[in-house]
């Protein structure tokens, strides 16, 4: 076999890469050094008890890498992660706060364009918001003539009823949702656990949104924040995932840490990441069939107001003549 033929067989194609829905949700690291060697990306962990340990990371099948306090990463490792489409996020302890994120430059803009078109048109934006509420209540519960204010009121009543039901189940008396960063340590275990679990949920949703190439800032119900679309999508799952978990930890001594650990352990059971990807695509473009990626490398196209898409990487000098 000739050398060019071998190179063509060895060259990775889009079809070879795992879909984001099949990826691991996230990997959190702290107090480690991440670097690239001849085999792959390795995390070097050094402790007094166990000495030096080396763990290789499955970068091509990893949706998001969360780097907590005490981590360092080399430029070569970042390059490989970007090439594999892995979102790299700098976080606080336990992955609770997000300080910055690096995303791959090779992402397709197909779903970003669907999102931007729907967001910019008031009628389409309302239709997407209506589909989000219909997913929570059921299609029959949302009347076609219901306004956005009425749907917000229905959602508020639903969450209040859920709080009341869970409070009775765990014999807590009256529960009131409270989120006050200035008075964090004085909050009850349920509120602490709920805030912590919601933050983990936001991180996973953010990874899915970015992996699809969408904008976290263009929300349909929420607005005015760089995480608006993340909040929109995360609200679809709170009643199923984070709220019951928080109430189950009402007597926990360390509710924040336990909420993060329980939520992480249950992610595979919930199969959350595939659901997020499917829901985003269905909400933004319910009538669009999900296309499989081309086997050939995608080249950037040019936009034309008359012709539509024009091939890129082509010299168009003849058109000027």
From TrEMBL:
According to its UniProt record, this protein's enzyme class is hydrolase
- The entry's keywords: Antiviral defense, DNA-binding, Endonuclease, Hydrolase, Magnesium, Manganese, Metal-binding, Nuclease
CDD domains, from UniProt? Answer: Cas1_I-E (cd09719)
User: What are the protein's GO molecular function terms?
Assistant: endonuclease activity
Question: What is the E.C. number?
Answer: 3.1.-.-
Q: Which cofactor does it need?
A: Mg(2+); Mn(2+)
Regions annotated as coiled coil: none
Kindly list the positions annotated as binding Mn(2+).
155, 222, 235
**Entries under InterPro entries matching the protein:** Cas1 (IPR050646), Cas1_I-E (IPR033641), CRISPR-assoc_Cas1 (IPR002729), CRISPR-assoc_Cas1_C (IPR042206), CRISPR-assoc_Cas1_ECOLI (IPR019851), CRISPR-assoc_Cas1_N (IPR042211)
Q: Which Pfam families match?
A: Cas_Cas1
Q: Which family does it belong to?
A: Belongs to the CRISPR-associated endonuclease Cas1 family.
The record's HAMAP family line, in alphabetical order, gives: Cas1
Q: What does the subunit section of this Swiss-Prot or TrEMBL entry state?
A: Homodimer, forms a heterotetramer with a Cas2 homodimer.
Summarizing the function annotation, the protein's role is: CRISPR (clustered regularly interspaced short palindromic repeat), is an adaptive immune system that provides protection against mobile genetic elements (viruses, transposable elements and conjugative plasmids). CRISPR clusters contain spacers, sequences complementary to antecedent mobile elements, and target invading nucleic acids. CRISPR clusters are transcribed and processed into CRISPR RNA (crRNA). Acts as a dsDNA endonuclease. Involved in the integration of spacer DNA into the CRISPR cassette.
Write the protein's name. Answer: CRISPR-associated endonuclease Cas1
What species was this sequence derived from?
Streptomonospora wellingtoniae
């Amino acid at each position: 076999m000739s050398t060019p033929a071998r190179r063509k067989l060895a060259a990775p194609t889009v079809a070879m890469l795992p879909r984001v829905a099949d990826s691991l949700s996230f990997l959190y690291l702290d107090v480690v050094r991440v670097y690239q060697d001849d085999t792959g990306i390795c995390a070097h962990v050094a402790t007094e008890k166990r000495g030096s340990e080396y763990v290789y990371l499955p970068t091509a099948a990893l949706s998001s890498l969360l780097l907590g306090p005490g981590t360092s990463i080399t430029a070569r490792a970042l390059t490989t992660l970007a090439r594999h489409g892995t979102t790299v996020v700098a976080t606080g302890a336990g992955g609770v706060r997000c300080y910055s994120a690096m995303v791959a430059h090779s992402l397709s803009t197909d779903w970003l364009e669907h999102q931007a078109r729907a967001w910019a048109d008031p009628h389409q934006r309302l239709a997407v918001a209506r589909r989000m509420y219909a997913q929570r209540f059921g299609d029959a519960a949302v009347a076609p003539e219901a306004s956005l204010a009425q749907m917000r009121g229905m959602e508020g009543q639903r969450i209040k009823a859920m709080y009341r039901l869970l409070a009775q189940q765990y014999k807590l008396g009256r529960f009131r949702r409270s989120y006050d960063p200035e008075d964090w340590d004085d909050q009850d275990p349920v509120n602490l656990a709920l805030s912590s679990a919601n933050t983990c949920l936001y991180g996973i949703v953010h990874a899915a949104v970015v992996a699809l190439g969408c904008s976290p800032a263009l929300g349909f119900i929420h607005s005015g924040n760089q995480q608006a679309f993340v909040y929109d999508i995360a609200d679809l799952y709170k009643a199923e995932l984070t709220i019951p978990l928080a109430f189950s930890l009402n007597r926990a001594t360390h509710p924040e840490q336990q909420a993060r650990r329980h939520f992480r352990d249950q992610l595979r059971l919930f199969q959350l990441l595939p659901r997020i990807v499917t829901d985003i695509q269905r909400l933004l473009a319910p009538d669009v069939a999900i296309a499989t990626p081309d086997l050939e490398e995608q080249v950037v196209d040019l936009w034309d107001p008359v012709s539509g898409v024009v091939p890129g990487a082509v010299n168009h000098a003849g058109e000027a003549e």
